[in-house]
Design a protein that fits this description.
The protein has 271 residues and is an all-alpha fold. It is globular and about 50 Å long. The two termini are 25 Å apart.
Length: 271
C-alpha cells in the first residue's frame, strides 16, 4: 500500500505533536478539498486519466514535468480500471505526503527537546526528554504505542469508507478527501464536534482557483517532506550519506523501520 517514499517511522510523530502540529497541518492540507456547500462535495465523480496527470505535472513542476519511469499511470491494479488505479496512486501520494509533513515537523520538534509539560501516562510517566527522535520513540512504552496504532487503525478504516455522500477514491471520489465524522445511527454513536476534514470551516467560501493552488502546494510540500524525513533518517543510520546533515542530526544504531522493541511478528519464528 505504501508508495516509494513512505516513512514507516511516522508513528513517533503522532505521539507528542498530536494537537499542535495536527491543527496547523490539517487546517492547511484539508482546505484544498473544502466543499463549496454542505452536501455537494462528493456528489460529482472524479475520474482522472493519464492526460490529467500530465497536465497537473506541468503545474507542479514545469522543469521536471511528467515523470513516470515505472509507467504506473497506465497500470490496472487488482483488475481495476486505469482510472481507479490512478485514483489509488493519487490518494496514496497525498496521504503519505501528509504523513511525511507530520514526520518532518515532528522530527524537528523532538530534536529541539520540545514536549508537553503534563504527564504522558496515567501513572504519571512524563514524556521522554530524549532529543534523538528515533531513540525517543524507543523510549515510549509498548502500551502507549498500541494506543497510537489503534487510533491510526480507526482513521485508516474510516478513510476507506464509501457511502452515498462520500465516494471512494477508486470509484470517482476525490483523492485525499477524508470522510466526515457522522454521528447517529449511520455513523459514530456519539457527537463529534470537529471533522478531520476542515474542522474549523476555514475554507468554506474559498474559490475553486484557490483550492486548486493549495492542493498543488500540498502535493509539492508533501513530496519535499518525504525526501526531507528520509534524509534525516538516512544520515542518522548511515553517517555521511547526506553530507549536508553531517554533524547536525544525531546517529542512531537502532532499527528505524521497527515500531516495537519486541519483534511480535518474528517471535513464532524465533527471530
Amino acid at each position: 500500500y505504501f508508495d516509494l517514499f513512505v516513512n514507516s517511522n511516522w508513528f513517533e510523530i503522532l505521539k507528542t505533536m498530536k494537537t499542535t502540529a495536527a491543527l496547523l497541518s490539517l487546517a492547511a492540507s484539508a482546505s484544498a478539498f473544502a466543499p463549496s456547500s454542505q452536501s455537494t462535495r462528493a456528489s460529482v465523480a472524479v475520474q482522472e486519466t493519464k492526460a490529467d496527470l500530465e497536465a497537473m505535472a506541468k503545474k507542479l513542476n514545469p522543469i521536471v514535468g511528467f515523470y513516470d519511469p515505472l509507467n504506473l499511470a497506465e497500470a490496472q491494479f487488482w483488475g481495476a480500471s486505469n482510472e481507479a488505479t490512478i485514483g489509488f496512486l493519487r490518494h496514496s501520494e497525498i496521504k503519505h505526503g501528509r504523513i511525511a509533513m507530520f514526520a518532518f515537523v515532528g522530527y524537528i520538534v523532538h530534536a529541539n527537546g520540545l514536549k508537553f509539560p503534563w504527564a504522558m501516562q496515567m501513572d504519571g510517566t512524563p514524556f521522554p526528554s530524549e532529543t534523538n527522535p528515533p531513540a525517543l520513540w524507543d523510549a515510549v512504552s509498548e502500551s502507549a504505542k498500541w494506543q497510537i496504532f489503534s487510533l491510526i487503525a480507526f482513521l485508516e478504516f474510516w478513510s476507506e469508507l464509501s457511502t452515498p455522500n462520500h465516494k471512494h477514491y477508486m470509484a470517482g471520489g476525490k483523492p485525499g478527501d477524508f470522510p466526515d465524522f457522522i454521528s447517529g445511527a449511520d455513523g459514530i454513536p456519539h457527537p463529534v464536534p470537529f471533522n478531520y476534514y476542515d474542522p474549523f470551516k476555514l475554507s468554506k467560501n474559498m474559490s475553486a482557483e484557490t483550492k486548486e493552488k493549495r492542493l498543488l502546494s500540498e502535493i509539492n510540500n508533501g513530496r519535499l517532506a518525504m525526501l526531507g524525513i528520509f534524509g534525516f533518517l538516512c544520515e542518522q543510520t548511515i553517517p555521511g550519506s547526506v553530507p549536508v546533515l553531517s554533524g547536525i542530526v544525531k546517529s542512531y544504531d537502532g532499527e528505524v523501520m521497527a515500531p516495537f522493541t519486541t519483534n511480535y511478528l518474528g517471535m513464532p519464528f524465533n527471530l
